[in-house]
Amino acid sequence: MKKKTREIIVREKEYVYVLTSKYSNGESLVRLNISSKEDKQFTCTFKFSTWDHPIAGSPLLTGVDLRNKKTNDTERFNLHHPKRIKELIIYALDHGWTGETSIEYPNGLDILDQMGWDTEFLLFGGANIEADVK
Q1: Distance (Å, rounded) from C-alpha 69 to C-alpha 116?
Q2: How far apart are CA 49 and CA 42, in angstroms?
Q3: Which of 129, 3, 134 is nearest to 74 (CA)?
Q4: pLDDT in tens, 69-104
Q5: How many other C-beta atoms lie within 10 A of the C-beta of residue 97?
Q6: Is residue 50 a contact partner of residue 28, using CB atoms and an 8 Å limit?
Q7: What is the pTM of this model?
Q8: Helix (H, G, I), strand (E, B), or coil: what is residue 3?
Q9: Nearest CA to 50 among 130, 134, 132, 129?
Q10: Contact indicator for 54, 133 with CB cutoff of 8 Å
Q11: How far apart are CA 44 and CA 21, in angstroms?
Q12: Domain spans of the chain?
């Protein structure tokens, strides 16, 4: 998969990010690397491990309906949407990342859960691969 660096502005600061993915034995591994546009040396990395749909691929990259536990509404969640990247950057900033240090979140699904998303069915190993992937 070709890496494409994208730009986003959050809280009046410019960031760049790259999504990468790999698939192995029914597991999807997605990595989101974020850095300040000014200094790409220090990154914030989120790693996501989910089941891999045999045709559609990673549910987080193709879009999946997730329930927001705070509102009980279902929303389409896709890491290719800048809104979702912005939410993750804000999470990292609110939890101590400054862009001047590196930080890694090895279990991105736990972070999404902390942010109020019901991610249980995305877990690799116990997943229903017939889930609504669009």
Answers
A1: 5
A2: 23
A3: 134
A4: 999 999 999 999 999 999 999 999 999 999 999 999
A5: 18
A6: yes
A7: 0.88
A8: coil
A9: 129
A10: no
A11: 16
A12: 6-122
